[in-house]
Fold this sequence. Notes:
Radius of gyration: 28 Å
Structural class: mainly alpha
Shape: rod-shaped
Helix content: 55-70%
Number of helices: 1
Order of helices and strands: H
Strand content: under 5%
Largest sheet: none
Amino acid sequence: MGLFTPKYPQGAEPPHRESRADRKSRERTEALDKDLTARFKAAQRESKERSARFWDDYERRNGPGSVDWS
């Protein structure tokens, strides 16, 4: 092996040991992703429920069939 050649052949590097800071950063990122996904799903569900309540109320006030859903 020469002076400027890599210590290990390409693809045969030893496994990288994850530092405590890297692990904490990864766990924090995963937790934020999980929380954001859950909040987005909750917001979507609430929006659909709010929309359904609106249209139910609209039809109740204006009579059934007042909305053409086609």
